[in-house]
């Protein structure tokens, strides 16, 4: 019967030669094997305890980061999708029944709020939401808050346009026609209509599912509104994008926000 002798993997240095398997008995190498296993287990334990300690210290140093992951654990994994942005006249158009319906249909039933039991919210380190009943709060999903804000700006804008036209001309038209440069005014309005639809698609694309809690009215009372302030989001680095774009800039006479409309 063949006897297989234990042969350790060669380690670096002299040790190999001294502890050659030829000079150790099977009993010795079994004992060494045992000792090595114990040492490995011990080292693994020390490593795990060390890593745990480091993570604990890090989470104590940056409590908000730790809290965000607790909070976002309530949100399911969301797949990435490629989506070509296209002008959609229904969304970009002026305020009418069809376009308002399209905008409204972006907000799901429940108005973009989710319901959480107070105990679950607490378990996930969420501050109080808007109280629904004694055991439940509702929380806003940021993407719907963003769409809501953009939709409100849109409604406000077209209401202002109507008021402007009512003051400055006879019958109300849907687009502002100034007294001097009607053509430019018309073009700017078309540009703005484009902006509403463009930003709509940007908000849907970013799909920010950050959970937003109720506004703290300042006197310790929990408000029945969500303003989104004080909530940490996960953001791409604005500075990196700014620096990259500025570094590789194309020369342009325009500056700032409003000059970008080429005339
Ligand atoms: C524009 O949006 C409406 C409403 O959601 C939709 O029915 C239509 O298919 C869209 N059109 C295009 C060109 O994407």
UniProtKB/TrEMBL annotation:
GO terms for biological process: mycotoxin biosynthetic process. The keyword Oxidoreductase applies. Keywords: Membrane, Oxidoreductase, Transmembrane, Transmembrane helix. One of its GO terms (molecular function) is oxidoreductase activity. The chain crosses the membrane at residues 41-61. Pathway: Mycotoxin biosynthesis. Residues 1-33 are annotated as: Disordered. It comes from the Eukaryota. Belongs to the ustYa family. This is Tat pathway signal sequence. It comes from Heterodermia speciosa.
